[in-house]
Write a structure and sequence with these properties.
Jelly Rolls, alpha+beta, 2 domains, about 425 residues, 8 strands
Length: about 425
């Protein structure tokens, strides 16, 4: 009965694209009812049956299990089931990519001379390039269409037939042609195998318009290609790590649609288990509720408060997830099949919860109740509530309070 609203929410999400404020209001209201139900129907009952330690232990284990398993599921494509989980997962993946690039370019003087926010914006536009010995990276007289940062290897700068300089790790080249819009003033030929990062003309212009410090950093690099190290190695490593942390902290959680699409395509190509992961992730959100309902169903003092709260909260969850799955390109019949399977499995896990009552002692049952409550609260705080706030802003507070009030009244004796 409680899981049936998943089907209703899925149908609405497939057939109708609700306004952001409507989705936010319904999600916040459902979250409020579920918070109240967990407080009075789950946590309070667990405390009365088992005391403090089963309650604290269950809440800690339940929330930790939910977060840990959710991360594993998201790695396989389960992050697509909700827009909030999708955005957060992609943001963390972008941070990982940025961190990997920073680890390689942190010793480049141009990068070190940029404020963290501008460095982060530039890092996201760099493309890795590998060249072999003897390969010409750019030729004298040709139009300049790229700027390069050397990570590993060495290159000869040749003007005419005469070598004029050797470039090594941490140095840059190609910036003069981009700054002056003049042809290349010299050729650069790889002396050894090289790993580079390339910034193309269109991205360079974008960086120049957004970063007031990049021109100064490049000018200083032209004046002295690489600053002599006067600090101790330990101090230099400390400064590099501090700079990298500042750059990562400056990353914005909002991704452009193009960047979001790029990340999703790359992740889906690397994993063929996305549909199964979405189903498992959906079940993770509903298993704790189902087990708690199964336990309550065998109690002589059970009320319908928790069941109604789950019913109310499941509807906006399925609606939001179905909209997100549609946006991710999942077919309608597959979305409906996913939710149908989820509803049946929720019933099965409720059966498991009812069976536990006959074999688990009261102390253990209190722990299981609290474990379910911890997982439910982790689900609400990590996906539903952040998504509601993102869609509706501060006004969702009133919907959450209204939902909590309804859940409280339903849970109150009489």
């Amino acid at each position: 009965m409680a899981a049936s609203s998943l089907g209703l929410g899925a149908i609405v999400g497939i057939l109708w694209q609700p306004r952001r404020v409507v989705s936010a209001t319904v999600m916040a209201f459902g979250s409020g009812t579920l918070i109240a139900a967990v407080s009075y129907e789950v946590a309070l009952t667990a405390f009365r049956e088992g005391g403090t330690w089963p309650l604290l232990g269950g809440l800690a284990v339940g929330s930790s299990l939910f977060i840990g398993i959710t991360r594993l599921v998201d790695e396989q494509g389960g992050f697509l089931r909700k827009s909030a989980s999708r955005r957060r997962f992609l943001f963390e993946r972008r941070r990982e990519e940025t961190s990997a690039v920073l680890a390689r370019v942190a010793h480049v003087e141009v990068m070190r001379n940029l404020p963290p926010g501008e460095a982060q914006a530039m890092v996201s536009l760099l493309q890795p390039v590998s060249v072999e010995p003897g390969e010409a990276i750019c030729r004298e007289g040709e139009p300049g269409d790229s700027f390069y940062l050397i990570v590993e290897g060495e290159a000869d700068v040749v003007k005419g037939d005469r070598p004029v300089a050797v470039l090594g790790p941490g140095e840059v080249f190609g910036e003069m042609a981009l700054l002056t819009n003049q042809p290349r003033s010299a050729s650069v030929v790889a002396r050894t195998s090289m790993d580079l990062y390339q910034l193309k003309q269109e991205h360079f212009d974008d960086v120049m318009s957004r970063s007031p410090h990049i021109a100064g950093a490049l000018s200083r690099a032209l004046a002295r290609r690489l600053r002599s190290a006067t600090e101790s190695q330990a101090r230099a490593v400390t400064d590099l790590n501090r700079w990298k942390r500042q750059v990562l902290d400056s990353a914005e959680i909002d991704l452009s649609s193009a960047e979001e699409e790029r990340l999703i395509e790359g992740l889906l190509e690397a994993s063929s288990s996305a549909p199964l992961a979405i189903l498992v992730g959906t079940l993770l959100d509903n298993i704790p509720e189902s087990v708690a309902i199964g336990i309550d169903a065998t109690s002589p003092n059970t009320t319908l408060a928790f069941l109604l709260a789950v019913f109310l909260s499941n509807f906006p969850e399925a609606l939001s997830s179905s909209v997100g799955l549609r946006q991710a390109g999942i077919q309608r019949n597959r979305i409906l099949l996913l939710w149908a399977v989820a509803i049946l499995l929720c019933g099965a896990f409720a059966g498991v919860g009812s069976l536990l009552v006959g074999v688990v002692p009261p102390m253990g049952l209190a722990f299981v109740r609290a474990l379910s409550g911890g997982a439910i609260l982790a689900m609400l705080s990590s996906t539903i509530i952040p998504e509601a706030y993102e869609l509706g802003g501060a006004s969702v507070a009133f919907s959450t309070i209204a939902g909590f009030t309804v859940g409280f009244l339903l849970s109150s004796p009489g």
